[in-house]
Amino acid sequence: MKRFFKPIEKEGSAKKPSLSPSKQGGEKGEEDIKKEPLKFVTWNANSLLLRVKNNWPQFSDFISNLDPDIIAIQEVRMPAAGPKGAPKNPRELKDDTSSSREEKQILLRALSSPPFENYHVWWSLADSKYAGTALLVKKCLQPVKVSFSLDKTVSKHEPDGRVILAEFETVRILNTYAPNNGWKEEENSFQRRRKWDKRLLDFVVQSSDKPLIWCGDLNVSHEDIDVTHPEFFSAAKMNGYVPPNKEDWGQPGFTLAERKRFGAILKECVISSDTPYFFGFNQPFICVEHKLKLMIMESLS
Fold it and tell me: Given pLDDT bands bounded at 50, 70 and 90, which one contains residue 10?
């Protein structure tokens, strides 16, 4: 947490950024308190249905205690609505078979129980039990717009449901599940990841009119501190295979090429990454623009 929560020098007499407009005379009414989100959770569930069946009491307690405004979930792994062979609706859970109806009911019951009944849920789902994202926003907060692609088109969803973008009056919340870089150039995974990173860079460049809070499993470990054994992950191989480009060597998510591209994105939108340190390989992030740091830090104090 040190990389995010570090002292920031004040520049001149500029006022601290505020996401909520205050009333004249500095008075704040109840309706002003929850204009925009201030507290965030990001979680790779690795199958939300399994988490509901096996870990829901613990997660419910965690959410009750933290009381976040936004819960960004990746790897939902629930299929989109629509019968086999027909176009799918990635905003809705599949329920056209007895098993899918049962799974949907299990999930919706969990999300209608405390504390989750206080949240509105948006889905972006893949055609099968793969990838997918969900965004839970407190009902007292109303996004101006929710879209599901990096080009901000409401009706279009990214392949595999990898993006949910919620726009508020003064801030954007981006939830992404980045595609894995993979191990081999010839499997097209390198190309897919390069294209994803280029589109994200274009997105942040074109979204400079509002501050950005970027949550998700970004499938990259940007700095050495994000892994426990940097030298080991830098030299990792799959069955002895070595990519032709040296910058693609190593564990997917920790290759030099991915780390450089991620650094370029952070630099372009002037954001800092906040990620807890744990044993192994660390890839979940919440990235926040510098101008929002003080405001968010104050909300947590």
Answer: very low
DSSP at 192: H
Instruction: Indicate the number of domains in the chain.
Output: 2
119 is catalytic: no
Joined tokens for residue 90 = 């990635």
pTM, entire model? 0.81
Judge if 133 and 209 occupy the same domain: no
**Cross-strand bridge partners of residue 146:** 166
Structure tokens at 133: 């994202």
Q: Is 89 annotated as a binding residue?
A: no
CA distance linking residue 101 with residue 117, whole number of Å: 20
What amino acid occupies position 159? P
Has residue 159 been placed in a domain?
A: no
Q: Is 177 a catalytic residue?
A: yes
Q: Given 69, 160, 217, 226, which residue is catalytic?
A: 217
What is the tens place of the pLDDT at every residue in 11-56? Answer: 444 444 444 444 444 444 444 446 789 899 999 999 999 999 999 9
